Amino acid sequence: MSTATTTTSQKHKLSPEQIEAFGKELDDLRARIVADLGEKDADYIRDIVNKQKKLEVAGRALLWAGWFPPAWIAGVTALSLSKIIDNMEIGHNVMHGQYDFMNDPQFTAKNFDWDNTIHADSWLYTHNYVHHTFTNIVGKDHDATGYGVIRVTEEQPWHPIWLLNPIFCGTLQVLFQWGTAIQELESEKFFRGEKSWAEMKPGLKRFREKAGKQALKDYALFPLLSGPFAPFAFAGNMAANLVRNLWSSSVIWCGHFPEGAETFSIEETEDESHAEWYYRQILGSANFTGSHLVDVLSGNLSYQIEHHLFPDIPAYRYKEIAIEVREICERYGIRYNEAPMAKQLWSVWKQVFKLTLPDSTYTQGPLAGLREALTFPFRAKQDENARDEQHVVAEAAAA
Amino acid sequence: MSRMQMLTSSRMGRRFLDSSFAAALATPHGVDRYVEMVDPLWSRTETRAEITDVERKTADSVTLTLRPNENWAGFKAGQFVKLSVEIDGVRRTRCYSPANSQFRKDGKIELTIKVDPKGLVSPWLLANARPGMIVQISPAQGEFHIPLPHPRSILLISGGSGITPVMSMLRTLTDRAYIGKVTFLHYAFTEDDVIYRDELAEIEAKYEGVRIIRAYTNADNGDLQGFFSKEHLVAADKHFAEAETYLCGPMPLMDGVRAVFEAEGISDRLHLEQFAAPTRTVPTDEATGELTFSASGEKADNNGQTILEQAEAAGLTPDYGCRIGICNACVSTKLSGITRNVLTGELNTDNDVNIKPCISAPCGDVSIDL
Ligand code: FES
Question: Which UniProt keywords apply (chain B) (predicted)?
C-alpha cells in the first residue's frame, strides 16, 4: 500500500538481517548523541527561551501602542515570532522530553505548557503517544488521515464531501491551534455515531480549561490593558495567532503529507520490531531544506525524519544527526525524502486538490471518475449491504 | 537594586505578581518566567538561594553560606535540605544539613559539605562554588530534630561531617539560652579534622551547661581516643540513659552506638539521621532488592521486570502510553537507587532524576515517586 502518488512502495525491500543491522546503526548513533548531551544543550534551550521572552514582551508592548500603524505591524511581527518559537522550538521539543535530561523542572515535559489552545496533556496523548508510536498507520495515527478532516491519502475512501477538500485544508490551516485543541476528541467519530457524548466529556473539559485561558489572555485581558485602543490590541493578537497557525500547520503538513511519504496498514505493522519501527519512521516522514532561521522557526521539524527516529533528542542536534542518517539510508537503499520547503508544501497542496476527485479519475480516466462520483449514493448503499452480509456470514461461521 | 527589582520585592509589587490577573496575563508560563528576567532569585515556585560566602574550613570540606529567597520557610535544627546545582547542563541534587542556628538573625543558611573525591557534586562545589552563584534548595525535610518542650538532658554524638545537623542543634540551643544539660561527643581523625573546632571551644567556654568531648581516632591529644565504645559513652555522660541522644555520622559509628543502646534497652532514646552514601552495587542479572512506590506507600520485591510492570503488578495505575520509551507519558522521578535502561543497558545512579518506568528496571533497592 502507498500514498496516492507513491507508485513504487519501498516497503519490505530489505531482508530481516539487513533491517536489524540498519536498526543497530541507528541505535549506536543515538547512544553517541545521548552520551554527548550536556551544558551546550542546556545553554541552547535557555538562550532560545530568553530570546522568545524578549520577543513576547516587545510584542505586547508594541501592540499597546497599536493605534500607531508601524507599532502595530512591528508588534504583530514580534508576537507572531514569539508564539512560533514558543510552540515549535521550545514547546514541541521540551514536551517531547528532549530536555528532561537536565532535570530542571522548567524544562521537563511533564511540567511544560505552551502558548497554544491545545492542553499539554491532550497533546502528550495525541501527538507524543499516538502519532509518534503509530506514525502513518492508517486507522491508528489520526494525523496520517488528515486529522479526520482532510483527505491526504487514497487510504481514506472517497466521498462527495471531499469535493471540499481544499476548503477543509485551508480552514484547518487558519484555525490550526483550535483544530489541534479538539483533535483528541476525534469529533468526526461522534458525528458518525461511533462515540458517545460521555466519551467526549473529559476531552471537552480539558479543552475548555486551556482554550478558555488562552482566549481570555489574548482576546480580553491584553486588549483591556490598552484601554480605548483595545481593538488594535485585539486585532494584533488575532493576527499573531493567525500567522502562527499558518506557519506551524505548513511545517507540519510538510512532515508527512508530501509526495513520497508512505502510509501503512495495521496488519503490516503488527509484530513490528524496534528496527522496523525505525524503518517506518523514515518512510513515513519527509524533511525540508531551508535557512538556519527556518530550522529554528520550524522547531527543527525541517528534520522531520530525524525527529521521528529520535523524538527525545534535542531538536537542534538533528542537523548534525541528519548527515549520518542520510548516509545510512543511502547505504541501505532507503528513500530519504527531502526537498525545499516550498516544493514540499506545493506537493501537499497538489495532493489535496487531486484527492478531491474519485481515484478512478486518474487510474481510468475522467469519465470513470465522473461515473464513480455520480453513482456514489447507490454504491454506498450496496457497500453497506455487502458489509452486512459479510457480517452475517462471519457470525454464522463463528457459531 | 534596579527599579524593577524594587517592584518585585515591594509588597505591592508582590501583591500584583501573586494576583490572578497577573497569572492570567502570564498564562500558560506563569509569572516567574518573566520576573526572573529581572531578578534570578525571584521565583514563586522554586526556593532559590544565592551563595554569599565560600569557605574551606578543612582540607576536605567546603562551607557555603546561602541567602535564600522568600520562599524559604526556615528549618528545625537537625533537618536537611536538598541542594541542586547544575553541572554540565544537568541538575544534580544532594542532601545537606544546615549547620547554623535555626534562629540565625540574617536568615542565611550555612552548609558544610564534606568532599567525597569519588563523588560528583562535592568536588564540583569545592572547585566551582563562588559568591553570587544561584542554586536551588528544597524546603527543609526530616524528622531528626529536638522536640518541644526540650528534654532536660541532651546528648549529641557525631562523627566527621555528621557534625552539621548536631552543630545546628547545639547552636540553636545556645541561641535560645537552653537551661538543660548538653553533652556533645564528636569523633574525628585528628584535631585538624574537626570542622568547627574554634567555635566549639568558644561555646564550651561560654556556656556552663555545655560539655564538649573530642574523640580522635588517629591521634592521642583528644579527650578520648579510638573508636566509639560503651566506655566512651560513660566517660562522656554517666547519665546517658536519662538523656535524649541525637546521632549523626558514618555507618560504623552509627552501628556502634545503636548496638550499645540496644544492649541497654534504651533504643527509644536514640534519634538518628542517616546519610548513607549512595550504594553503588554492581548490578547482576538477578533481581534483588525492594522497589518502593513512595507516593502510594506500596512496596514490592524486585522481580526484574520494568518498573512500570512492577507498579501495575502491585496494583497501581501509573500513566503510560507507548510502553517502549517514546512518548514520555510514564516519566517519573526516581528518588534513590540504581536503574537500568532495558533498551541500552545504561545504568542510572543519580537520585532525584526523571526516568521512564516503561524501559527502566531496578537494580537493588529503588524508590520511585509513583
Ligand atoms: S510509556 Fe511511553 S515512554 Fe514510557
Answer: 2Fe-2S, FAD, Flavoprotein, Iron, Iron-sulfur, Metal-binding, Oxidoreductase
Half-sphere exposure of B7 toward its Cβ, with a 13 Å CA cutoff?
Answer: 10
pTM: 0.89
Q: Would an 8 Å CB–CB cutoff place A313 in contact with chain B?
A: no
Measured in Å, residue B222 CA sits from the centre of ligand 1 at 58
CB A359 within 8 A of CB A154: yes
Q: Which residues of B touch A38 (CB under 8 A)?
A: 88-90
Cβ within 8 Å of B, A 59-118: 95-97, 100-106, 108-110, 113-115
Q: How far apart are CA A129 and CA B323, in angstroms?
A: 10
Q: For residues B77 and B74, what is the distance between their CA atoms, to the nearest angstrom?
A: 10
Q: Which of residues 16-45 of A touch B (CB under 8 A)?
A: 27, 31, 37-43
Distance CA A118, CA A324 (A): 34
**Amino acid of residue A115:** D
The answer to whether A219 touches A237, Cβ cutoff 8 Å, is: yes
B354 Cβ below 6 A of ligand 1 = no
Cα distance from B328 to chain A (closest Cα, Å)? 7
pLDDT (tens, 9 = 90+) of chain A, 399 residues, equals 334 444 345 665 789 999 999 999 999 999 999 999 999 999 999 999 999 999 999 999 999 999 999 999 999 999 999 999 999 999 999 999 999 999 998 999 989 999 999 999 999 999 999 999 999 999 999 888 888 899 999 889 999 999 999 999 999 999 999 998 988 888 878 888 888 899 999 899 999 999 999 999 999 999 999 999 999 999 999 999 999 999 999 999 999 999 999 999 999 899 899 999 999 999 999 999 999 999 999 999 999 999 999 999 999 999 999 999 999 999 999 999 999 999 999 999 999 999 999 999 999 999 999 998 998 888 777 777 776 676 666 666 655
Q: By C-alpha distance, which of A33, A41, A203 is closest to A124? A: A203
The β-bridge relationship of strands B134-137 and B153-159 is unpaired
Question: Would you call B153 helix, strand, or coil by DSSP?
Answer: strand
Cβ pair B344:A31 closer than 8 A:
yes
CB contact under 8 A, B86 and A102: yes
Q: How many CA atoms lie within 13 A of B13 on its CB side?
A: 11
A286, A258 Cβ separation under 8 angstroms: yes
B322 close to ligand 1 (CB < 6 Angstrom): yes
Chain A hits for B318, CB-CB cut-off 8 Å, are none
Our measurement of the distance from residue B205's CA atom to the centroid of its chain's CA atoms, rounded to an integer in Å, reads: 30
User: Residue B62 corresponds to which cell in the numbers above?
Assistant: 567546603
Q: Rounded to whole angstroms, how far apart are CA atoms B24 and A382?
A: 55
HEC string for B252-280: HHHHHHHHHHHHHCCHHHEEEECCCCCCC
- How far apart CA A268 and CA A249 sit, in angstroms, is 29
